[in-house]
Amino acid sequence: xxxxxxxxxxxxxxxxxxxxxxxxxxxxxxxxxxYPAGRLDRDSEGLLLLTNDGGLQAWLTDPxxxxxxxxxxxxxxxxxxEALEALRRGVxxxxxxxxxxxxxxIPPPDWRPQAQEAPGSWLELTITEGRxxxxxxxxxxxxxxxxxxxRWSIGPWTLADLxxxxxxxxxxxxxxxxxxxx
Length: 182
Fold this sequence. Notes:
This protein is α+β, with helices and mostly antiparallel strands. Helix content is about 15%, strand content about 30%.
């Protein structure tokens, strides 16, 4: 069982094959037998885990395990305390209520490329689900469109010192995997 951390740049699909308009992961690397554990939408960037083990892939992506995923989001405007509290309580999206999130304003990350970055505020959000475009939809719900989205971590694995487009092998969790929380 192997686990690879990839810093997915924006504009790349979280699948091996591309489409006529956007490249897939194969434009960055070749890892036969590895599969993404979860997705990042084409416009998002950050940590994507790849594994060659189906059981690990299922564990990493199943919301029943409440594996925290932390995102750094550049949003339009400045969310006030009420907007942040709404995220902390959980908001209701078209596909139902979200679990409560950890949410706070942060200074702009000093390690990120800053070329042509729109003005706005940075938030750190930690969620324990992974619905389609969830963080973007949560931002829209509180009236602050997400302009840039970077997944910083999944559980104990982070982007620390991993440049865009690069990979590193990381230690998978101990086997057997822990059961879902009660």
